[in-house]
Design goal:
The complex is a heterodimer. Chain A is an alpha+beta fold. Chain A is built from six helices and eleven strands. In chain A, the strands form two sheets. In chain A, strands 3-2-4-5-6-7 form a six-stranded mixed beta sheet. Chain A is globular. Chain B is built from 13 helices and one strand. Classes of the chains: A alpha+beta, B mainly alpha. The interface between A and B is large, with 35 and 55 residues.
Amino acid sequence: MEKVKTLFDVIGPVMIGPSSSHTAGAVRIGLLAGKIFGEIPQKVCFKLYNSFAKTGKGHGTDKGLLGGVLGMDVDDESIKKAFDIAKKLNVDYSFEYLESYNKHPNSVDIILEGKNIPKMKISGISKGAGEVAITKINGYSFNINGDYDTLILIYKDKPGMIYKVTALIQSANLNIATMHCDRSAKGQEASMGICLDGVISDEILDKLTKIEEVYLIRNIEMLKK
Amino acid sequence: MIKPDTFRDILELSERRNKKLYEICQECEADSLEISQEEIRDRVKVILDAMKEAIKQGLKSKEKSSSGLSGDDCAKLVKKYKSEKTLFPETLQKVLTYSLATVEQNARMGKIAACPTAGSCGIVPAVIIAMSEALNLDEEAQINALITAGLVGETVSNKLALAGAVAGCQSECGVAAAMAAAGLAQMCEGTNEQILNAAALTLKNIMGLVCDPVAGLVEVPCVKRNAFLSIYAVTGAELALAGIESVIPVDEIVDAMKQVGQMMSPKLKESSEAGLATTTTGTRITEELAQKWQED
């Protein structure tokens, strides 16, 4: 999926330095992960791999990831103080620095635990120039890059589920840009990541949430450019 | 209207419609993003304002980056310019200080506008803002210049990824310098051809520039390289405005840069496995920082 280029991919974004991949990219991964989790976590562990692990401290990758999870965007000057802010919010954060040949050079696994939301594991990569992707949520494969409003669903694997979901989206006359499905095993759990060409209404979202077999649903708004 | 992919087609379209390059660019951009040209210019102004703020903050600060490798060079330059005789006229002094101010601000986790990348963020703002002050140009002229610079960067990026990890520093600071040169040529009322020649002449002379940062950080040599290439961009514009033309057309130069980028060893593309990064001193710094960060 080739993204349409704009002038603003070259001039901008306005961001906290020093690196578009290791700082701004880290913030965006954290921001998406925080939105997917759905609340400020009580505990969060970041496992940084490869280049993220080796050069992360010098690039503020750690502060960027944590700041993102706390809801800060790439141009937020409080990123530099993310550790202090997390402490004030009683967020127990930790970092591990690892190496893995099976992982992208700039990878992170984020394990979040909250008050109301069960533990989640979210994996992301920073592809360069501030472009990122969430590649896994709780073991299911996704490709969420923040360029679109994106629906995330984890649900019981059974016939008709994709129809039920897409019919509701269609009822609002919304176009699906891309769709990505995965599952653990037949009849077990499955996942959908749906990128939309528009904004989904609360009403449709409510109907989707009420589908009995849906265990988890999130509506992730497009990231600010 | 869809923006053409190559410099040649953009030039041809501009000439045919008797427009400046930035006019064509903002028109195409507005169509593509489905917003008005005024909104495009407003968005460019937001970036311009962020650039000015980064310069302002950078000029005030001596704070070192978290590695301690950079942060106080701009202050040294400013101090020298206040007290001593210097080699540069005031205009170029400003270009140099604004460039260091911005890129040091980046290294210390301050707010900057990537242009085209964070590691090369000091070049375009330094040239456009310092030179517009010297030439007494207003904000509209600065926006025109920034759009021209963006058009150059975007057109290069149609063929060449603007990332040190893909094509070395020629695709980051090198492209930034070409963008700045084109922006400056626009500010000096150069013709469309002169603007593209400014970019072409500049790009030709950074061909093969490697990305070999010490300890993988955007500091050594990146910070000082921004300063060097800002002045270099002024040279590109100066030559082009005198009517000096690049023998090789700019599209072909980009093709050549792509080829050179592909031939460049991965060790010289942001992986810090060769070049300055693995000199005796580079290695020592890398080891010391690894030790320091492990203890933190």
